């Protein structure tokens, strides 16, 4: 059986197998549910819309699949999606290459809004992560002069291709299988920085708290927050979910949250009740 990596969200025929005559045979319910479980093992949590894009089947069918898996004790249902059983999810380490598979249109739109708000010659910290990477791509397209600081090797290499952008790569310990640099030496370097803007991501946003699955990533994000005058959180709607193991900060420590229009009404209402700017990227088709 193929894994979720074999059928990215842009592949509409992911919900079936191809017969010898070229026709697509829909997956059996058991096969479809196994795909969902495999997907969750890579990502930790997923929304119905993300599964709909990945598997190419209806939301009503997926709801029945998720309800069945929850009844079997395999997953926990959330509003609009599912996640690994709670005791596993809080310390779940996502596959470093898997994040870009989820919500690509939403991440691109969020990144574009974040980049559009940057001013020429600002100093900008680009946190590690797939949504911040989209902001870096959008900033590169704008072709404006910037001083960029990052702890992400992919972002550093991308921005280093511009003659307009001066890139400072923070040193430390490279996380296994990831472009992310963390560690005590990075935290100490961050103390010497006073940047204009931080563009950061988070594993989960829950009841006004940002959280991560590991202590070193949480410590890195706290250090980057302390190094910036303005802090902008870039998170797609699926990140509003049960909290992970390590608290990073509260939303009250931020200045702006940029998310997409898939955010639930309750989560948006909680954001707007805070004294920060809320920017919604319009992605619904």
Automatic annotation (TrEMBL):
Keywords noted in UniProt: DNA-binding, Transcription, Transcription regulation
HTH deoR-type domain mapped to chain residues: 29-84
InterPro entries: Carb_Metab_HTH_regulators, DeoR-like_C, DeoR_HTH, NagB/RpiA_transferase-like, Tscrpt_reg_HTH_DeoR_CS, WH-like_DNA-bd_sf, WH_DNA-bd_sf
Top-level division of the source organism's lineage: Bacteria
Keyword Nuclease: no
SMART domains per UniProt: DeoRC, HTH_DEOR
GO molecular function, one term: DNA binding
Pfam families the record matches: DeoRC (PF00455), HTH_DeoR (PF08220)
Identification of the protein by name: DeoR/GlpR family DNA-binding transcription regulator
Lineage of the species this protein comes from: Bacteria, Pseudomonadati, Pseudomonadota, Betaproteobacteria, Burkholderiales
